[in-house]
Write a structure and sequence with these properties.
The protein is mainly alpha-helical. The protein has eight helices and no strands. The two termini are about 40 Å apart.
Length: about 170
């Protein structure tokens, strides 16, 4: 077992839903996708000693998953299923979108830090403490529509900030 088993388990858990969605994007039958996910999990646990802490866990586990999908498709190609070329294109596109999602998630904390303190407090109240907007508006002595407008403005600002950060990372 690698050192940092807690880190491994955390990463393993983090990617279960993403792996399932990836499999489902190329194997449209949910039962098949669940079978492939289980096969992937078995292989991941069998190869646990091969994972090098500090390397890209996502790339490692998705590569294992890709091989499991290929094995499944070789065994169980349904009538009217995806061609190998389309399967490969879907896999590449899914990984590209995963990379983009990771870059956006990485950019979010920095963008939140750049918000004015009152906007950060509002975001924390609504999303961190999960307060309902009407209740929060009452506590703040504001109209709910005013808070909804503020949240829309803040979300738009965060979106733009995140997109700029991603663009900076992807420019050559």
């Amino acid at each position: 077992m690698p050192s940092g088993m807690d880190d491994f388990l955390s990463l393993f858990s983090k990617y279960q839903q993403r792996l399932y969605l990836y499999i489902l994007s190329v194997l449209p039958n949910p039962h098949d996708a669940e079978d492939v996910l289980q096969n992937t999990n078995v292989v991941v646990w069998r190869k646990i000693d091969e994972f090098q802490p500090g390397t890209d866990f996502r790339a490692w586990v998705f590569q294992i998953c890709h091989y499991e999908i290929c094995k499944f498709r070789g065994r169980c190609r349904p009538q009217g299923g995806f061609s190998d070329e389309l399967f490969d294109e879907l896999a590449v596109e899914y990984r590209r979108r995963e990379d983009l999602l990771d870059m956006r998630q990485d950019a979010l904390p920095g963008c939140i830090e750049r918000l004015p303190s009152q906007d950060r407090a509002l975001i924390d109240a609504v999303y961190g403490r999960e307060l309902e907007v009407p209740r929060l508006a009452k506590e703040m002595g504001r109209e709910p529509t005013s808070l909804y407008r503020s949240l829309r403005r803040i979300r738009q600002w965060l979106h733009d900030c995140i997109e700029r950060a991603v663009q900076r990372k992807t420019e050559p």
